[in-house]
Amino acid sequence: MGQASHEPINRLAHAFSGGAPAVPPIFMTTKYYGGAGSQDTPEDVLERMRRYAEVLAESGYTLRSGGAPGADTAFEEGASEYPERQAIYLPWPGYNDRWGNGIVVGQDERLEQIAARYHPAWQNCRDSVRKLHTRNGPIILGHTQPVILSDFLLCWTYRFLGGGGTGQTIRVARAYGVPVYDLADVDNTFEKDWLY
Q: What's residue 29's pLDDT?
């Protein structure tokens, strides 16, 4: 999978622990991560997502997310100082009242085929739901060719169950060998693996 060195983020661990100033942005090769989760993510987890997104953006990571309320929005807010380091995938123009600040992928046939491959009940989904699920694949794969995988997916799911759109993103991540860190899992190793 060619995972990037953790050195830039290791140096940010002190900023995350409080007190130390954040390290200036480090520009190397483009690095991506997926940020997703339930629209009902608890507020304390949303705050952690904002802090993680800020640290990751300062480290040169580009957020890939789906533009939904809750977790997706928290990641965007955390990376708000770095709009050039955000790839926000939308199922259609105007989704979630977004006009002109996202990448519309709901009609992309290649991405729709990927969504159909990993969704367990694709044939039962309405067209609008299919477009919503189509926008979950690029959170892991990007929307261009060649595919550039996200280094990891950071998310929160209710009771660590991975349902809905986040579940679709998790299925795509696992199919491509991308590590998934669900913040609902108290034993997740995200901070150990990526911040320290």
A: 53
